[in-house]
Amino acid sequence: MYVDTDTVDQTLFFIANNVGNSSSLIFDYTYPEVLAGTFERKEAKEWLKIAQKSDESLVFGISRETIEKFLTERGFSNVVSVSAEYFNTSYFTGINQGRESTPVLSIAHAQIVF
User: pTM for the whole thing?
Assistant: First the structure.
């Protein structure tokens, strides 16, 4: 989120070409709508405002719909992406029901399989 597209590509290229078979990559990511200020959630707008005032602006986002294609084009496979909805229904149950995971991030998992 804090590095540009070229740096993301260079980092993923390095990982894809320098790790062992079946290695995994896990990272969180935000969406283009958050970067554009059009994601209609208060926390997204607040985060963007804070980031713009700091030395760590938000510069890279990818949509949930394209994360799998994005990673497979860079050598990864078995891509799984989960968003706030998954965490809310899987973990915020029982006494934690009603809590919410942030909707401005998703988590991706992918593997390098030779």
Answer: 0.90
